[in-house]
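Supplementary Text 2. Reproducibility record for the structural model of the 315-residue chain.

All settings were left at their defaults, and a single model was retained for analysis rather than an ensemble. We include the record here because the model underlies the residue-level annotations in Supplementary Table 4.
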Amino acid sequence: MNTLYFRYAIEVERSRSITQAAEHLYMAQPNLSKAIKELEEMLGIEIFQRTSKGVIPTKKGSQFLAYARNVLAQIDKMQALSQSDSSTKQSFNLSFPRGSYISQAFTLFVAELDHDKEIELNIQETNSMQTINNVAKGSFSMGIIRYQNIYENYFKDYLVENELESQPIWEYDVLALMSENCPYANANEFKLEMTSRLTQIIHGDNTIPYIDPNIGRKSTKSESLYNITKRIYVYERCTQFDLLSAIPSTFMWVSPIPQIVLDRYKLVQRKCEVPNSRYKDVLIYQKGYEFSGIDKLFIDKLFEAKNEVAFKEYN
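Retained model, structure tokens:
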């Protein structure tokens, strides 16, 4: 069985689109569709199904993909045996936004490393502009940036200006995160006007290319409409969780969060109709950068953590 097809299937799972996966793999879409079909015929199962959320794995497809990731990880380890002793160090670095599913992916990634060998990992949680600068100047090999869809063109232009490549990870609507003891945690429907009675926690260093950095401190139209005048600006993730957990009258707009984190801090996340609430997370790297086996392992864990929260129903 051609293990290259395994990589094709994993890329389709990441992209949730045959067309986008073909672009990422630098191959024609009909050729990728044919390869996936041949793989399904060899296995005797349907790996993917088309839904309103895109191309997603079937139940048996998810099982196959888990096995495929393990097989490829073992192949990467075997290939590493042929490298010189100087390359046995497991080195990895990443600059990324304060996203809980990304942190969860990093934990899963570290658990998969060979702890009998030398390990050197360097990660930095920061804003998207700093991440772009980190990767552009070579301080970090890869980065993950996050932006509202309404500002996508600004970020795309800035990436081109810095000669960086990018791959989408996923797109989502933000959720309202709050304590289990928040007065609105169990409301039948969480409405935007409820936020006027709460204190909003905000990451204080969010910036957008070509736009005055002070824009992050200005009220948006929706905030003005619902009179959100109470804000706490924070710059790291643990503080925000501690505040949300201890102060029931606080809330924060976040990307979907793994259940293990919600349980740890006794938090809940609620869906809410919010103007311009669509966000995108994107993987970035320098042009010509070749992903190492360690990089690929992290990316696999990243999409594994993402899929855990992406396919969950929120109310």
